[in-house]
Amino acid sequence: MKVLIAGGSGFLGRALTRSFLADGHKVFILSRSSSAPEGAQAVKWDAKTTQGWGHLVNEMDVIINLVGRTLASWPWTASTKRDFHDSRILPGLALAQAILQADHRPGVFIQASGINHYGLHGELADESTPPADDFLAQLTVKWEAATQSVEELGVRRVVVRSAVVLARDGGLLSMMALPIKLFAGGPLGSGKHAMPWIHINDWVGSVRYLVENENARGAYNLIAPTPTSNAEFNRTLANVIHRPYWFPTPAFLLQILLGEMSVLVVEGRFAQPKRLIESGYRFQFSAAREALSDLFK
């Protein structure tokens, strides 16, 4: 099987690439820096047009779009928020255009998105919950819509709305653990809001599962099945790395320090991977303690 991963040089793309390569598949990485994990072939692109790479689509069985600037980019200026938008929409449109122009189209297209699709407040959400109207939710709506046209071309499209992916190398876990390692850990704000997470093994496993499951199409939440509050997560993390769990960091202080970006750490809606479980996927790490114990062992 031939797999094309846009944004494959990031930590999620590298993990996914290793998994495909280990099973003998060929992986091509679209990257603006012409870098790719060992064993994969790098293909340079501008993330805006089909020039120089569009012909490769004719050879691909799977296309995976992971492109999008990380939201952990402080501060959230008008320019930064515009880049959040453009870095998601323009690559998606280019990929859709390449598929439109191709003589042979891939069997499946995986589109990245975020669990923030459902907003920052409300009851337990699943894939049937409508999108919220805040900035982050509407960003996911536009991100997903950029490649929706491939469905009209007969391509099976799966949208993966991912929670925070926990991994030893890469991602946000090391930054999240730093205050606790420095004996300054505790809940952020009230601590009652959701801390959406998924172990890297389950993220890779679920994406692979959805690629290979011919009945899978539409949106799937990639999030651990056990709802976890911010306070519960940080308390468990402190216990796993043998550090004290202190007083909360006031929400107003985080709002002063981080500005609008503070919504990432002081707000959050609980969600569940309803469709993923119903489809038959079995999680390796369902609870925060077992996931964190594995990552810090």
3D architecture notes:
The protein is of the alpha/beta class and 297 residues long. The chain has a domain at 2-167 and 197-223: NAD(P)-binding Rossmann-like Domain (Rossmann fold), CATH 3.40.50.720. It is 36% helix and 15% strand. The protein has ten helices and nine strands. It has helices at 11-22, 78-101, 135-145, 173-181, 200-212, 230-240, 251-258, 263-266, 274-278, 288-296, and strands spanning 2-6, 26-31, 41-44, 62-65, 108-114, 156-162, 164-166, 197-199, 218-222. A seven-stranded parallel sheet has the order 3-2-1-4-5-6-9, sandwiched between helices. Strands 7-8 form a two-stranded parallel sheet. The longest helix is centred in the first third of the chain and has 24 residues, at 78-101. The radius of gyration is 19 Å and the shape is globular. It starts with a strand and ends with a helix. The model has no long low-confidence stretch (mean pLDDT 96).
State the secondary-structure class. Answer: alpha/beta
Assembly type of the chains comes to: single chain
Biggest sheet descriptor:
7 strands, parallel
The separation of the N and C termini measures 34 Å
Q: How many whole angstroms does the radius of gyration measure?
A: 19 Å
Tell how many strands the DSSP assignment holds: 9
- Secondary structure tally, helices: 10
Q: CATH homologous superfamily name of one domain?
A: NAD(P)-binding Rossmann-like Domain
> What is the string of helix and strand elements?
EHEEEHEHEEHEHEHHHHH
Strand order of the largest sheet: 3-2-1-4-5-6-9
Specify the helix fraction band: 25-40%
Overall pLDDT level: 96
Low-confidence stretches: none
CATH topology value of one domain: Rossmann fold
Strand % is 5-15%
Which CATH-level-2 architecture of one domain? 3-Layer(aba) Sandwich
Please write the CATH class name of one domain. Answer: Alpha Beta
**Rough shape?**
globular
